[in-house]
Amino acid sequence: MLWVIIPFLGACLLLYCLLAGADFGAGILELFTGREGRREQRHIIDRALGPVWEANHIWLILIVVILFMGFPSVYARVSIQLHLPLTAMLMGVIARGCAFTFRHYDAVQGRSQRPYTFFFVWSSLWTPFCLGVVTGALVPGGLQSGDMLSGAPLPGGIGQGPIGYFEGYVHPWLRPFPLALGLFTVCLFAFLAAVYLIGECPEGPLRRRFARRAAAASAAAVLAGAIVFAAAERDGVGLAKRFASNPWAAGGMLAATALMPALWVCLARERAWPARVLAGTLVALILTAWFAVQFPVLVKMKGGPDLTIFNAHAPAAALDQLGWALLAGAAMILPALAWLLRVFKNEAG
Amino acid sequence: MEDLMAARSQMAVSLGFHIVFASIGMAMPFLMAVSHWRWLRTGRTVFRDLTRAWSRGVAIFFAVGAVSGTALSFELGLLWPRFMEQAGPVIGMPFSWEGTAFFLEAIALGLFLYGWNRLPPKVHWGVGLAVGISGVLSGIFVVCANAWMNSPAGFTWLNGRATDIDPWRAMFNPAWKGQSLHMLLAAFAATGFAVGGLHALLLRLKPGSEFHREAFRIALAIGSVAALLQPLSGDRLAKGTARRQPAKLAAMEAHFRTEAGAPLYIGGWPDEEGKRVRYGLPIPRMLSFLAFGDLHAEVQGLEDIPRDQWPPVAPVHAAFQIMVGAGTAMAAVAALFLFLSFRRSVWLDHRRFLTLAAICTPLGFIALEAGWTVTEVGRQPWILYGFMRTCDAVTPMPGLVYPFLAFSLVYLFLALVVGWLLLRHIRAAERDYPSARPEAGHA
User: Fold this and answer.
1) pLDDT tens figures, B160-205
2) Do A317 and B167 touch (CB under 8 A)?
3) In angstroms, rounded to a whole number, what is the distance separating the alpha carbons of residues B283 and B264?
4) A54 Cα to chain B: minimum distance (Å)
5) C-beta atoms of A64 and B62 within 8 A
6) What is the pTM of this model?
7) Do B88 and A72 touch (CB under 8 A)?
8) What was the ipTM of the complex prediction?
């Protein structure tokens, strides 16, 4: 069942990025909108997100469930040492969902729209940033190894154990690499949103504006990607070497790079669907490359064995039930999701 | 504040906040489905207006419930990582089913809210009902996991670790039926009484509004059926608790001495040092009867339980009394309402009856919060009853008081905003829906 669960975990992550990521991206784009066309753009974003954001967001819950049922020690370890950025991310999740809904459903569309919009756009930026930081903290041996499985005290409080508060709970994520990955996630999600929204607009200046934004965001993502590699070198992660030495990762990155010109052509011609497919493929390639580099490690540890999918998984009885639950769940969710998207994403594009 | 206390407080605040929105998310779609059905059947615009007005409220409540629920799925690990590490494989299954049910609920809600002019009317109605059904299912799955913490099953505990696990037996543990039924009825009773009470108040202020009259009747009818069934389910759950968690039952009843033919105390304040109840009204032999169905049965008292395994007696006893008191009052009003409805009495529209219903608005949610206090505080000092203590499960990260304060402030703020939004909706109802105007009833 491990071989059902692992692809499922990857698929959930990919779908979360492609769907919920774009929802966050739409909020980020609003941040960069000038006065002109703001109302029209907001209308497009409201219409595009309204019916789907809650469903899109649930891929994250599935990821959490897979982790704590299938890889409980990973879930526990990450929860302990990344408490602060995870809490920060949750604040963003709460603020974004509430602000978006309040903005749309307030019975009086008056002055209160401004604070809603403020919270909506900033939490749309903040949440993916934190998500990137959390992800980045898992990659380069940042988490302390300590015998938590036996219930022995972990890196204790300040002055309690061999490891202090900063080293235990702050340093794992407050480093150049996780922060750079946060920045990259923000750019990537904004890029996805801009590409998707092209298809939501009628022909005209707004459509052109989203196409231009998408091109700009893709350039920003490339730049942020370069910063990620530079930061990785500085943190001693050796990301470039690991990418180069892994055929899947190298191939994925090369393919992603090769797709860029085609994407730019589609953007220049405002071709909605080809651009969407290319953008989705691009993200899938980047994630595949990352999985390939990471495989089979789930969390890199400092001073101890890494947590891998082979040594950190739950007993077989739990994996079996999880696998079947995921398969049965997918058989119900995917048709329903397809119906939802068909009903609401059919008219434009 | 001590870290353990901060973690417990954060969990209490998060659960206490989420449960209100989750309950409304479970019950409200059924209220809407009734009104929606009557619109399709009768073509009276008041029912269309009502369905739409309610659905706008539900959209807000559902969103807040969804994000606070997401936060909870992380908080379980952030606060209790050592518990989750052992519990995850054993009790993860209902959570994975809950994820599926919640997913379907979110999809159905999107289709329902935005599908007014896009879906055929019958399909649209069915999608609305699907929101409620998947909401109820996800509620049952989550309560299964909580029931497992109260009556652990499906594993062998070896050296502080869960081994030899059986997820099915864990999910369908001895307490799952009793607890889920009690929670579902609570959600329907609380939502029905809150919505019905609010519309009763508005009808009292705007006599003759057809909109508020129909809303009041639909909501209170559903709430009343649940409120009348609730004492039966509560009795069943209490009997199970008496067998499975004698310490919790003893704390609920402030029952200190083990004795046959034990009395039941109404009210009163438990004196933990003196091991007796002050100022309470005892009813002889009643506790033995309620707990075991036998006036002479022996009921274990707290004195037979090691002192370090006592739950905090006073809060559990007080919360239990509040829950039972509120529930009894609701059941009485429910019986009156159903009687008047059955007789088609003019008293249903009488301002005295409307005032009574309006007073009952918060009762269901007070009972709900008190009930969860009984369940959770009554399980202490255990997080996994009889196997793992709460103090052994808490995260080692120091300074937990800060996340607790942050979550408390955010949820307090959100509660205020949601209340304010609700008020704005109520004020705008007459603008948006002609049937909500007072003269509509006389037209």
Assistant:
1) 888 888 889 999 999 999 999 999 999 999 999 999 999 999 988 8
2) yes
3) 5
4) 6
5) no
6) 0.91
7) yes
8) 0.90
